[in-house]
Amino acid sequence: MPQYEYESEYSDEIEVIVRKGDLHIEFRGSTDSVIRSLLKFISEIHPTWFLASKLALKLDLVEVFEKASGVIAVGPEGPMIVVDRGKLTDVELIWLSLAKAWIAYHIGLTEDYTVTSRDIQRETGIKPGTISARLSELSSQGYLDKPRRGVYKLTSLGVKRLIEDIIPEIKGKIGVE
C-alpha cells in the first residue's frame, strides 16, 4: 500500500518523487506541470504504456475542474451548483447532479461517484418519472453506467460530454464565462 506524507502548510506547489532501484527523480512545481512532466517521463521509460495510453480516453482532472468553474463550486460541505437553477432544464440539472458526485469522489469527499435517482429528485425537485426517463436516455447513449437498480454514475464518455458540451452550453445560456 502506498504511503502518503501530509504537510499542513498550504502551497500551490507539489512535489512527486519517483524511486525504483537506484533511480531517484523529483518533480516539483504546479500540479498541472508536475503531472505533465511525470507522464512525459513515464512515456519515455515505458513506450508501450505510452502507445496504449494514446488509445484511451483521457480525462484531465484539472480541465474538468476549470470547465466546471462558475457552474459548480466546492465549499466545506462539498460540491454545489452555483448558478440559478430556475434557468436550467431538467436534463441540465440531472447532468450537474451527476457532475457533483463525480467531483466529490475525485477530490476525496466520497467513496464512489454513484448517484441514486432519489438523490437527484431530492436535490432538483424533478418528478421521479422524468428523472427515470432522462437517466435511461443518458445510460443508453453511453454517458452513464448503471451498477445496480436506481444507481447511476458518469462514464468517461459522460464526463467528456459534460465538459465539452453540457457545461459550456449552460455557461453560454446563463452568461457565465
What does this protein look like?
The protein is of the alpha+beta class. The protein folds into two domains: 13-55, no CATH class; 61-174, Winged helix-like DNA-binding domain superfamily/Winged helix DNA-binding domain (Arc Repressor Mutant, subunit A, Orthogonal Bundle). Helices cover 50% and strands 20% of the residues. The chain has helices spanning 31-45, 47-55, 61-68, 90-106, 117-124, 128-140, 156-174, and strands at 13-20, 23-30, 72-75, 78-81, 115-116, 144-148, 151-154. The strands form three sheets. It has a three-stranded antiparallel β-sheet with strand order 5-7-6. A two-stranded antiparallel sheet has the order 1-2. The protein starts with 12 loop residues before the first strand and ends with a helix. The model has no long low-confidence stretch (mean pLDDT 85).
